[in-house]
Amino acid sequence: MDSPVNWDKLPKVTGRPLEGITDHSNEDITRAVEDVDRRLHAIDPDGTVSGAFVERFMALGLTRRDFIKWSSMMTAALMLPPIFESRVARAAAVSSKLPVVWINLQDCDGNTESLLRTSDPGFASLILDTISLDYNETVMAAAGYQAMDRMNEVIAKHHGQYVAIFEGSVPLGNNGTFFTTGANAETGISLATRVASGAKMVMAAGTCSAFGGIPAAQPNPTGAKGVGDALNIPVVNISGCPANAVNLVGTILEVVMFNDNPALDRYGRPLWAYAHRIHDNCERRGHFDAGEYVLNWGDTAAQNEWCLFKMGCKGPYTYNNCPQVRWNQQVSWPIRAGHGCIGCAQPNFWDTMTPFEQPLGAKVYGSALGIGIDAAANTVGEVVVGAAAVGIAIHATATVIRDKTAPQWKNPPPQDTPPKPPVNS
Amino acid sequence: MTENVPEKRTHVLFSPATRWMHWLRVALIVYLVLTGFEIGQPFVLYNPLVPTWKDFLMNWVRGTHEMAGFTLIATELVRIYDFLRTHEYKDGRVLFSKAAWKKQLAYYGLFGRKYRHPGVRYGPLQFAFYAAFYVALILISITGFLLFGANYNGPGFGSFIYHQLGFLYPWFGGLVGVRTWHIWLAWSIIVFVVGHVYMVVWNTVENRDGTIDTMLTGTHMRVDQASENE
């Protein structure tokens, strides 16, 4: 942090274009580009991508061409028009001026792992390495009191300026003591409240911090909640199990270029990443429409890369950009690898999307309702219709028996007057 | 009743609109259930050794399911209008008559004799189940709208559902919850149809008064006439 930037006093950008979602004219785009240029100039007046940044990625074995490819990819992923490519590159170079505090709460650290453990260091990990990641428990050298001091120092120094990224759910049961961290055994809820109160923007990385995720699945023994629900504050949710590095870095670039109020969907997720359904962008969608399904793992249909719907793919219920940006250096993603989507970016996916390898009609209830017998929707339906059929058979048989044993029942003597009308008489 | 005017053997029970909507609904429900199961857990399968050579089956199934669903919603709207127009909702008072409940339950339990509830079209059990059926129909239409809106990315009504009615998705537990509700409601309608068909047939056989014709002709024999004819 050579020259601290006051992020609140930067020029505002209005009318962020979202290709395919917002209606915008060429004039709108020109105005937005001018606004972004003014904002980037205020952050770093050097003008172009700084030499220090270029040297850093050259040292990793990446080329200038790689950087151009990457910034084009990010521009497309952010649903920006192509004119923004150079702005995205510049924003990536100056993103190190944005202080970021990364707090690990109740989860498996899978999001950190997913970002750090890339087989070759891409730009996403480079930027996550070089953003001013002032506090990250998983990768920092400090421990114990030293670590806590460092965190307190960072949140005091950058008060109101830093972006807080939370990973993991906040357990609220037993006064929050299911999760404590640091030398003072501070509870997750206390830590989250303290860090979020001074943050310019709060991001929830991963489904656990966005919606509670697996810790909040039935029966939720720790009373876990997502960060937004637990603290009752507005949060930008980057859901996914784990969250895609592209979505995290893209949101940081969005903050650098536009501001801390990205357009969100109804679950608080950035529209540029979560506006479209997996199913609608799936490369196997044509096989779904043709009625061509994989029936067994490894069968001919699977080798032909047919649709995985009958193998329990939850792509039709899941909003994420996996089909476009993919994973592992944009090489592959679950459905391409031959397994259906498990819907990990949706709230309560562990409860609502299971069993993962069967369609929803086979969803097992019972364990969620707390009763011993698990039953699927279709099983219940079949049993109830079967019970109705058995009831019908019994009733019909009883009617026949009655008619046999009491033939006068249907033909009562004339003096047997009908019962008096119950109403309207 | 005067001596000169002969007593009419029948009385009007259902208006033509009600009857037409009923039979349209029968056809639509059969089609929607069949295609719905195909969409939920596809059972018409292709040979994986044969590449696609003809129609896009799921496209046809889903497209016609949606069109049939919209037609069903149209029949519901007409039916609800008719329900209000013919003051059918006033028949709901039979729900609050203890005697009517007793009589109908005894009748179906085979220890009560046949009877009519004068002035109303339905018995209390009947009215309660029909009301529940309509609630299920309305809910399955709403969840169907939501599923359609999420699938349809173009402008127009689908876009309206997705954006303006989109606040309903979290109410049902997200898209996956909407889908689960849709399955359960479909099963409840199947169970209703099974019971409904049996009870109509049983009533007709029991009374020999042409109950089953009522939905075709709209008229019903008077109860005393029916007893005399037996």
From TrEMBL, chain A:
Residues 410-425 have a biased composition (Pro residues). PROSITE patterns: TAT. Heterodimer of a large and a small subunit. Its cofactor is [3Fe-4S] cluster; [4Fe-4S] cluster. Residues 274-356 form the Cytochrome-c3 hydrogenase C-terminal domain. NCBIfam families: hydA. The keyword Metal-binding applies. It comes from Sulfobacillus thermotolerans. Residues 108-254 form the NADH:ubiquinone oxidoreductase-like 20kDa subunit domain. InterPro entries: Cytochrome-c3_hydrogenase_C, NADH_UbQ_OxRdtase-like_20kDa, NiFe-Hase_small_C_sf, NiFe_Hase_small_N_sf, NiFe_hydrogenase_ssu, TAT_signal. Pfam families: NiFe_hyd_SSU_C, Oxidored_q6. Belongs to the [NiFe]/[NiFeSe] hydrogenase small subunit family. Residues 404-425 are annotated as: Disordered. PANTHER family: HYDROGENASE-2 SMALL CHAIN, NIFE / NIFESE HYDROGENASE SMALL SUBUNIT FAMILY MEMBER. It is found in: Cell envelope. Keywords: 3Fe-4S, 4Fe-4S, Iron, Iron-sulfur, Metal-binding, Oxidoreductase, Signal. This is Hydrogenase. Its main location: other.
UniProtKB/TrEMBL annotation, chain B:
InterPro entries: Cyt_b561_bac/Ni-Hgenase (IPR011577), Di-haem_cyt_TM (IPR016174), Hydrogenase_cytochrome (IPR051542), Ni-dep_Hydgase_cyt-B (IPR000516). It is a multi-pass membrane protein. It is found in: Cell membrane. The keyword Iron applies. Residues 14-218 form the Cytochrome b561 bacterial/Ni-hydrogenase domain. Gene3D superfamilies: Transmembrane di-heme cytochromes, Chain C. Pfam families: Ni_hydr_CYTB (PF01292). Keywords: Cell membrane, Electron transport, Heme, Iron, Membrane, Metal-binding, Transmembrane, Transmembrane helix, Transport. The chain crosses the membrane at residues 23-44, 127-148, 160-178, 184-205. Belongs to the HupC/HyaC/HydC family. This is Ni/Fe-hydrogenase, b-type cytochrome subunit.
